[in-house]
Amino acid sequence: MCAAIDMLASEQMFYGHSPPAGFLTDYTPPVRRPSKITTRGFSAPCLSVLKPVQLTLKEATRSCIKISNDKKNKRVVFADDRGYALEQVKFMTEPSHVPPYWALKIIASPPPERKPPPQTVVDLWEQRFSQPASDYLEFRRRITENCVSLENVIIKQNECAVDGTIKVKNLDFNKEVFVRASSDGWRTHEDTYCAFVESGPLSKNGVSNYDTFGFRLQLPIHSRRIDFCVCFRCKGNEYWDNKNGENYTIEKSSVRKSPAISCARINNGNSWTMKTNDGNTPYW
């Protein structure tokens, strides 16, 4: 008995504190064997070898561990980085460039189709002729030979009107320029007189060769077409520009689109350069 107490005391000195509980529970009492005679003249019992004890640490399985308790600086790491097992492991079978597999319910019920907004039918007035001044050579020929020519027109959809300019040859100071228009196929017609706008550049004699007149026509409400021509009266003579007998036509077209203003552009400051004996002279 005294030998066992001495052994426990030596074990306590070895650990520095009381042995763990597992060590005490697994302790096997010594088995007495035949005594041996020592040099001191008495016998000491032989003790059996103690069984080694293996301590196991049991921890609850968690997916991640919270390292810092500081609310401002939080850091989360995965459990496998700390040597613990993960709660759930999922293997992705799709390649990295393929989106994940969607549930059959989502695929079976596609989102409702969005219907395009209904198109609005808009009536727009459009000219059926090109701007006369766009072909400069033909434009100059008509003024030189016929003494008058329509220059440009602008269709103003919001105002339901047409603004235009006319070039005439300066044959005399007294001039009369008007536009004759019809909206019923020339069964009836109406004359609209033009207003003087400006004179062209002066020649060597100090007289302008061309004058510009402006006009405005109101587009018909109960018709989808208007035809017109230009007349220039000077010194008892009449000079007409009716597009070589075809007349100038503006029609209303139904377009399926958003309402918009469609008009021809005109630059009131257009200048034409003509070759003269004294060099390049701008023509207005």
UniProtKB/TrEMBL annotation:
PROSITE patterns: CBM21. GO terms for biological process: regulation of glycogen biosynthetic process. InterPro entries: CBM21_dom, CBM21_dom_sf, PP1_regulatory_subunit_3. One of its GO terms (cellular component) is protein phosphatase type 1 complex. Residues 140-251 form the CBM21 domain. It comes from the Eukaryota. Transmembrane segments: none annotated. One of its GO terms (molecular function) is protein phosphatase 1 binding. Gene3D superfamilies: Carbohydrate binding type-21 domain. This is CBM21 domain-containing protein.
